[in-house]
Task: structure prediction
Amino acid sequence: MSYLSPSTPEIQRPVGNIFIVLSVLIALFLNALPWEGWWLALRPDFVALVMLYWCTHTPLRVGIGLSWAAGMLADVADASLFGQHALAYTLLAFGGVVLHRRLQMFDLRQQTTQVLGIFALTYGVYALVHWQVNGYVMWAYLLGCLTSTLLWAPLSIMFQAMRRARVERE
Amino acid sequence: MSNAQTFQFFNRGPSPAARLVFFVVLSLLLMFVDARYRYLESARSTLSMLVTPIQQLATMPGKLWHQAGEFFVTQGGLVEENHGLRQQHGRDAALLSQLQSLQQENQHLRNLLTLPQRSEFSAQSVEILYAERDIFKRKLLIGKGENASIKLGQVVMDDMGIVGQITRVYPWMSEVTLITEKDHAVPVQVVRNGLRTIVFGAGDTSQLSLRYMPVSSDIQNGDVLVTSGIDGVYPPGIPVAKVVKIERDAAYPFARISCLPLAGVDRNRQLLILSDLPPLPVQPAEELPPGTGKDAKTGGNG
Result:
């Protein structure tokens, strides 16, 4: 269970730009899979997850601007109002950048509680925009916030393992 | 290490708070412009060229699964289906010959009454790329766009009835707003007695409702609603919905009527897009009483 311990300096090794870009593209791909019905309600926002990971682990390279750009792509992919995801991801990235040092001190369990707050903010933005546009709030949609949070730990472990593997290969 | 990072961090351009404010304002501005003025369609279609390949890749496994399923149909199933289709074809052919004679008769009668002719429309078939991504919305994206000269406002239907209308056109795909989208309205007519009304989407894929129908109105369970064609968007006579539940409560001025869409709004992969619909004759402006023409507004901006 070494992954549950606070992150070691080894994890701070640089990651390639290609790795970051690929992870965002794969997240867009996962979001675009044909989810339907309840699965759609439960769908974690993979792009938000990946952006939050990079914002907290490499805040110098991936920050608010790139998250905003990813949000624009997500807006086009979802055919939603232009700027809806962009706004949500901007807040998400801000949360990630501001909290990144605290998150790095925490173990995965503590990180998850912090991340829940950030995702709640993100999904709150979706709900708010939807409420402004359509006049009612769909609470089922907030389920995605919980599933996204639950995926935080597996995603962190996976990315750490992949980054470590790269470092060892080099 | 983290000290060095902090130092570097604050040396790199504006602070996170400044960036936050900048991008939040930018996003809000974009949202406002997009919602109110729809100026950003070209930017959207440019960006869609980046996203479309990813989306097509994502829907590929499902498509392959379908195709593989189709490939491994059993001989028995095929024979049975063939038999069924043959029977259906026989029945349809009989009906069709009747239809032709009726059409001629109708044309003749319309000529006698000097009414304008019902014009024909052509249809092209499209395949659904994927269904609504956003659970808030009831939209479909289909695999044809400007490249197949799809235009805004064209009617989308399947073999059973109306599915929706085109509300956004990209270079290679277009977006269909379903009739079940909340507050989307279709002017309809009851087949049984010709009663004209408007059917609204309820925001659920399997529900439509008739609003503002007096408690005493002549509507029964099982009544079929077809488009009335007075809106200039939907051609007349296409099935839309079937009445399934009527609640008449004398305490309220209006009856509560729920309908089921006849088309497989959330079932089919293949859809038809109607084109070359005749434009409505231009109404004389000065004789237009205030409030007329509201029916033609069918909730295009969802």
